[in-house]
């Protein structure tokens, strides 16, 4: 008996020690949510119409190339709206239909006299809007995670195209906003002509009528190296459709260029490396434009075949190179985004909430202890010990799981105190009933714990089901409350049954023939 009791005591002491080690000091090891630590609260809107326009423009350019390859004559092919484009002056209708058959899967077609009007099918448009918001949410989530923010919240909010972002503890708001909203669309294109010193000079090279399959892209050129002193804007003519884009990236990282200045190195995936090798092999001694967000960052001359490695150079600071690497790794946003709402929550509000939560917890614990001591006499100390151990395990598990304590989490914290007391009340009342049947003290204690065990299991499993549903379907503060409650329920079963019973046995072991029990 004593050997068994010794092991039980060792287990209890070990659990308490590990719990305290996990959360102490709490200021460093317990993560605090936005409502306690302060930070940034933002609501952003995804411009889904821009994503639809991009799909339309991409389809138009692919169709233009397909028609040129098939020698299908036409006089006009242009975008007429975010979801529509027109084709006019078709000479060979049958050849056109065969060439554009793939377009019909996404766009509905209405025919006219030698012309067609295409518009995105409604179900496809809805699907593209949904996919755009989902992709934006996942991209923002990856970027926020790489910022190193503890327990950020990135979720749908309000309207179908809105995203809620909460960043606890973030102080550099401007940098966080820039990283989140940066489109970071990387494109690699061969330079057709340029650089031109002015936009007008570029257009004059094409008689002021730039072909529809080409586009003019601005770029920066550092004139300090040639004695100019300040950077100026130059212009490059490139094709609209990029053979290599950011979707082909495998990774991106800060690096140094040949002048030991900050740059961004990148590597391509297998398919991208194959196409990049073909592109560079057939365009040796031509310029390759590295375009980021529709601006040429650099335009080096291709000296030999390149496969899976490249570098983006420019007037980067070290922090800018790191941030650009971050957004490239997380992927490009599928559409531009607008800030609808922004609130910065100061830590003073969090400190006040923490004080209020701690005071409520301590106040509730004191009131419960006074009641238990008054009603159950010395057995009330048993309940007090169980509650303290329960709360220690709760804090230790939250710190170990790297969970975040929020204001609703404090509610779960206080609720755990109440549930711990409730379990002890069930046990104590059952022991009192067993004592009333003239059983011995030891037999009454053993019977009390054994017969209440399944009642405790039933009540905790029922509460656990509700907490799991909250954790699965809830967002933000609701999940924080649910997680605290789940950990508290598990800890309560351990303390109410194992710890409490061990304490009774410690008291009874020290007495040869116990006749009474202070309960």
Set down the secondary structure blueprint.
Elements: H1 2-23, H2 26-29, E1 31-32, H3 34-37, E2 39-46, H4 48-69, E3 76-81, E4 84-88, H5 93-99, E5 107-111, E6 116-120, H6 122-146, E7 153-156, E8 162-168, H7 173-181, E9 186-196, H8 199-204, E10 214-221, E11 232-239, E12 244-245, E13 249-256, E14 262-268, H9 270-281, E15 288-292, E16 296-298, E17 309-312, H10 318-330, E18 337-345, H11 347-376, H12 379-400, E19 404-405, H13 407-436, H14 441-473, H15 477-509
What does this structure look like?
By secondary structure, this protein is of the alpha+beta class. Among the domains are: 2-36 and 347-509, Multidrug efflux transporter AcrB transmembrane fold (Up-down Bundle); 182-342, Gyrase A, domain 2 (2-Layer Sandwich). The chain has 15 helices and 19 strands. Strands 9, 10, 11, 12, 15 and 16 form a six-stranded antiparallel sheet that branches. It has a four-stranded antiparallel sheet with strand order 7-8-2-18. Strand 15 (288-292) and strand 16 (296-298) form a beta hairpin. Helix 6 (122-146) crosses helix 10 (318-330). The radius of gyration is 34 Å and the shape is elongated. The two termini are 23 Å apart.
Q: What percentage of the residues does DSSP assign to strands (E)?
A: 15-25%
Tell me about the biggest sheet?
6 strands, antiparallel
User: Could you name the CATH homologous superfamily of the domain at 2-36 and 347-509?
Assistant: Multidrug efflux transporter AcrB transmembrane domain
Q: What's the architecture of the domain at 2-36 and 347-509, going by CATH?
A: Up-down Bundle
Quickly name the level 1 CATH class of the domain at 2-36 and 347-509.
Mainly Alpha
Global mean pLDDT: 80
- Terminus-to-terminus distance: 23 Å
Low-confidence stretches: 222-228
Which range best describes the helical content: under 10%, 10-25%, 25-40%, 40-55%, 55-70% or over 70%? 40-55%
> Based on DSSP secondary structure assignment, what is the total number of beta strands?
19
> Which structural class is indicated by helix and strand composition?
alpha+beta
């Amino acid at each position: 008996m004593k050997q068994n009791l010794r092991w039980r005591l060792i287990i209890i002491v070990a659990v308490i020690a590990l719990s305290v080690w996990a959360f102490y000091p709490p200021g460093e090891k317990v993560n605090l949510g936005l409502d306690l630590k302060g930070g940034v609260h933002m609501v952003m809107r995804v411009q889904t119409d821009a994503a639809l326009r991009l799909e339309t423009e991409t389809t138009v350019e692919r169709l233009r190339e397909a028609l040129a390859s098939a020698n299908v004559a036409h006089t006009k092919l242009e975008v007429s709206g975010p979801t529509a484009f027109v084709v006019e002056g078709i000479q060979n209708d049958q050849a056109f239909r065969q060439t554009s058959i793939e377009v019909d899967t996404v766009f509905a077609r209405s025919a006219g006299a030698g012309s067609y009007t295409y518009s995105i099918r409604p179900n496809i448009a809805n699907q593209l809007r949904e996919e755009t918001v989902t992709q934006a949410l996942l991209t923002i989530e990856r970027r926020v995670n790489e910022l190193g923010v503890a327990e950020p919240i990135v979720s749908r909010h309000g309207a179908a195209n809105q995203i809620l972002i909460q960043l606890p503890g973030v102080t550099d708001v401007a940098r966080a906003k820039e990283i989140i909203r940066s489109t970071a669309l990387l494109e690699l294109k061969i330079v057709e002509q340029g650089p031109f010193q002015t936009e007008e000079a570029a257009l004059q090279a094409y008689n002021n009528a730039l072909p529809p399959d080409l586009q003019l892209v601005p770029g920066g050129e550092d004139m300090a190296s040639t004695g100019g002193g300040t950077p100026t804007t130059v212009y490059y003519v490139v094709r609209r459709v990029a053979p290599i884009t950011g979707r082909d990236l495998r990774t991106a990282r800060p690096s140094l260029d040949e002048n030991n200045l900050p740059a961004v190195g990148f590597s391509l995936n297998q398919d991208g490396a194959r196409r990049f090798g073909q592109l560079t092999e057939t365009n040796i001694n031509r310029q390759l434009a590295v375009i980021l967000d529709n601006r040429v960052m650099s335009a080096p001359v291709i000296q030999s075949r390149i496969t899976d490695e490249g570098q983006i150079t420019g007037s980067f600071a070290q922090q800018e190179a790191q941030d650009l690497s971050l957004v490239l790794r997380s992927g490009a946003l599928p559409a531009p985004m607008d800030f609808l709402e922004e609130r910065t929550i100061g830590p003073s509000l969090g400190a006040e909430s923490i004080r209020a939560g701690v005071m409520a917890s301590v106040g509730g614990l004191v009131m419960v202890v006074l009641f238990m001591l008054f009603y159950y006499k010395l057995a009330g100390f048993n309940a007090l010990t169980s509650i303290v151990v329960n709360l220690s395990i709760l804090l230790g598990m939250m710190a170990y799981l790297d969970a975040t304590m929020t204001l609703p989490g404090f509610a779960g914290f206080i609720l755990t105190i109440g549930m711990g007391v409730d379990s002890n009340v069930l046990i104590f009342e059952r022991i009192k009933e067993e004592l009333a049947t003239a059983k011995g003290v030891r037999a009454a204690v053993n019977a009390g714990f054994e017969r209440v065990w399944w009642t405790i299991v039933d009540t905790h499993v029922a509460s656990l089901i509700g907490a799991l549903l909250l954790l699965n379907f809830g967002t933000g503060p609701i999940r924080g409350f649910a997680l605290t409650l789940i950990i508290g329920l598990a800890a309560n079963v351990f303390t109410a049954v194992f710890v409490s019973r061990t304490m009774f046995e410690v008291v009874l072991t020290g007495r040869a023939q116990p006749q009474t029990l202070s309960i």
